[in-house]
Amino acid sequence: MKLMTRASSLCQQLVVPEYEYPTSGPMWSDSIGTHPPPIMILDVDSGNSTAPDSTYQATVAQAKAAGAEILGYVDTSYASKATATVETDATNYKTWYGVTNIFFDNVSSDISTLSYYQTLDNYVHTTNPGSLVMLNPGDFPPEQFMTAGDVLMVFENSYANYVNAQIPSWVYNYPSTRFVNTIYAASASQWQNALSLSQSRNAGDVYITDDTDDAGNPYDSLPSYWSSLNAAIASACGGPTPTLTPTLAPTPTPTPGPKTGDINGDGSINIFDLSILLSHWATSNATSDLNHDGTVNIYDLSILLSHWGT
Containing domain of residue 300, as a range? Predict the structure, then answer.
């Protein structure tokens, strides 16, 4: 399955690796504030966490409230990581963040590992029907890997290497929605050519940035041309030009009587209520236990989000 329906192979979606901690800079907030927001890859300790992170929980809830689709990042260590461990990492994203779409990174392209990734793909789809699996070998694997994931990131490298990349002919036998191209170190004068090349190379999903891997992470900020890139994508899809707005909490507007989810009593269901609820997670706190079942959990979070902004 694909996250969103698109009219044609030229109508692409942006997939953003959100590899900056939410409070370290504006990457998450700017992505969430883009309308419509891009697909986001959530990387919490490469999927190796042993406990939930409340800052990420609040950020993911805000992104979902804005309509964003999110994938949880899980490192497979080129098929050297036990499948049971990888499956646990994937399950933790659902348990802690309500995220069921999974992005498997550091994917081996060796045909001998195909069954390993087919097992993981089957686990995610069986455990969470309707979810999406994205594999990232970073280059074109053997065609058989198309049976091990819904979407393949078949290019992840610099613009300099992208220009002359060789595309296997079998790529054009599949819908463009099955492929992602991720290009970094593309300057303000190069991103448009990168976008054009991605369209001609049957990539339905794309990310282009002028960030570089000099410090080991080319995904710790959005590109300087973020607004222009969004406008180009929207134009090709025949939709409105996305806009970027501040992701500030709504201004409190007191109203008569209590509201469901208005934990702090300021008259509005917003980020402040969410923060309080998450601080009481897995406790019996009566204020945050919105459904009164004795535990603050995902059901209470769902109730709060259903009243978001009211």
Answer: 249-310
Where would I find the H helices in the chain? 27-32, 54-65, 83-97, 114-127, 159-162, 191-200, 226-237, 271-279, 298-306
Residue 258 and residue 158 share a domain: no
Q: Give the pLDDT band (50/70/90) at residue 2.
A: very low
Nearest to 164 by CA among 187, 141, 192, 183: 183
The mean per-residue pLDDT over the stretch 151-173 comes to: 97
2 falls within a domain: no
pTM of structure: 0.76
User: Are 62 and 271 in contact, with CB atoms under 8 Å apart?
Assistant: yes
- Is 77 inside any structural domain? yes
Task: Give yes or no for residue 285 having a pLDDT over 90.
Answer: no
Structural domains counted in the chain: 2
In angstroms, the CA 89 to CA 72 distance is 9
User: Are both 41 and 112 inside the same structural domain?
Assistant: yes
- 249: pLDDT strictly greater than 60: no
CA distance 280 to 57: 13
CA distance linking residue 301 with residue 190, whole number of Å: 43
Beta bridge partners of 151: 134
pLDDT digits (tens, 9 = 90+) for 177-199: 999 999 999 999 999 999 999 99
Q: Do residues 78 and 207 share a domain? A: yes
- Is 234 within a domain? yes
CATH number of the domain bearing residue 45: 3.20.20.80
CA distance to 23, 70, 97, 153, per residue, from 275 (Å):
14, 20, 14, 34
Express as a percent the part of the chain with pLDDT over 90: 69
